[in-house]
Design brief:
With 423 residues, the protein is α/β, with parallel strands linked by helices. 46% of the residues lie in helices and 13% in strands. The protein is built from 16 helices and 13 strands. Helix 15 runs antiparallel to helix 16. It binds zinc ion (ZN). Zinc ion is lined by residues 46, 92, 94-95, 202, 242-243.
């Protein structure tokens, strides 16, 4: 029998478990857990969270398209009540792609389909996803290290949208929906006032917030922190995020929310302060101090996103794309600049060798620049590619975040392919 997930969550938060956080985020068994009277969570990517009120069901989030049939079966196994309402906490494909089996079930039974409710900004999001499906396929292949991943172009649009707040009634109970920008511009957090249950969507994910993501559209660190503090003020007794384990106990919930807010506020406020002094982006990312005490919390490890990337997104939110380096305003073509640098250094291989020599000393960032110049100057050179693969493998090993590992890993694969091709 699997351990009670609320006991496990208590142990992690109370410092009595060393469960690796990557396991917590991604590798829990795909099962449904009852976590209260009429309350359950299917641990999946992302979680599906059914609520039974009266003789109907509400779902907070519906999960991804691949797990949709299994998620549907797990929930049906727990309760046969018809689905009346489904809330998409946001339009990411791990949350808003699970309605297929539910709609099919209603159609087969001759019942009206469930009412899907979401924030109004989900509609332009879905349009953007269809417009940029190729791009989204490529960046998500890199982010998640899944080379074959393709991006969907068709979405189950909500039946009802709202702008700032909405109260929905299902099975005689009230469900509060509150909008806040954070990981996305279309986020909804959900509160059940009678049961004192809070669903933050992806505004809490058991690790450093996905507020920096190098390959994705703008995130909103400041609004996100405000939302976390608004949620903390609800004094919820059960907290069910869309990734990872639920949390019980008002004190544990409040602490987790306030700590996460404090991390975002620290990064945001330091970045704005440096921008107001006229610092370049490069200065800003090397000057902001990361609050190490907060990163030590079991729910703030930088395993998915990382603080340096959040700083960049704060810059992007308030600043333009110009980073303060005048040479970057109208840059040369990468290969032209790389060949010039390589010729000064004695050739692409000399540059690559210097990159390799820097590796043992641990200066991965400079090694990465030199290896990349060597590669851009001589993209078919096997030795250059061998060293470039070694350099980015070291970067990948040093990185804590899945996002950094994914981008470095793509460069490693690219150079290994050239090296193996024998050109
Ligand atoms: Zn998610």
């Amino acid at each position: 029998m699997t351990q009670d997930i609320l006991d496990l969550s208590d142990e992690i938060l109370d410092g009595k478990s060393n469960l690796p956080m990557t396991g917590l985020l991604l590798n829990q068994p795909h099962e449904l857990h009852e976590i209260g009277d009429g309350l359950a969570v299917v641990l999946a990517f992302g979680n599906v969270m059914p609520v039974r009120t009266g003789n109907t069901l509400t779902l907070v989030d519906t999960g991804n398209i691949f797990q949709a049939p299994a998620n549907h079966g797990l929930v049906k196994n727990w309760s046969d009540a018809p689905l009346e309402v489904a809330v998409f906490t946001h339009g990411h494909v791990d949350h808003a792609m699970g309605m297929g089996p539910w709609d099919a079930e209603a159609d087969a039974a001759g019942r009206p389909r469930a009412r899907v409710v979401a924030h109004e900004a989900i509609l332009p999001r879905f349009e953007r996803y269809a417009l940029t499906a190729g791009w989204n396929g490529i960046i998500n292949q890199r982010q998640f290290s899944i080379p074959g991943l393709t991006w969907p172009t068709e979405y189950r649009t909500p039946d009802e949208t709202y702008r700032s707040d909405l109260v929905v009634e299902a099975g005689g109970s009230l469900i509060e929906l509150h909008h806040a920008r954070g990981e996305t511009d279309d986020h909804t957090w959900v509160f059940l006032p009678e049961q004192k249950v809070l669903y933050p969507g992806d505004l809490f994910i058991w690790c450093v917030p996905n507020a920096g993501n190098p390959q994705k559209v703008q995130r909103y660190a400041k609004d996100w922190a405000v939302a976390l503090r608004d949620m903390a003020a609800k004094d919820a007794e059960l907290f069910v995020p869309s990734h990872g384990l639920p949390i019980r106990g008002a004190d544990r919930i409040r602490t987790a929310l306030v700590d996460t807010a404090a991390l975002l506020e620290s990064l945001h406020d330091q970045t704005v302060e440096l921008m107001n002094q006229g610092c370049s982006l490069n200065d800003v990312i090397h000057t902001v101090e990361i609050p190490a005490d907060l990163l030590d919390k079991p729910y703030l490890t930088p395993i998915y996103d990382e603080p340096e990337f959040i700083v960049r997104n704060v810059w992007r939110f308030y600043g333009g794309w110009h980073d303060g380096n005048p040479a970057h305003l109208k840059p040369a073509r990468d290969p032209d600049l790389a060949r010039e640098i390589a010729s000064l250094a004695g050739g692409p291989q000399a540059l690559a060798e210097r990159a390799a020599a820097l590796l043992p000393a641990g200066d991965r960032r400079i090694a990465a620049h030199l290896a990349e110049f060597a590669f851009r100057a001589a993209p078919d050179d096997r030795k250059v590619n061998r060293i470039r693969a070694e350099v980015f493998t070291a970067c990948q090993e040093d990185a804590t975040s899945l996002m950094a590992k994914g981008i470095y890993g793509a460069a490693v694969r690219e150079s290994r392919e050239v090296e193996a091709s024998g050109r």
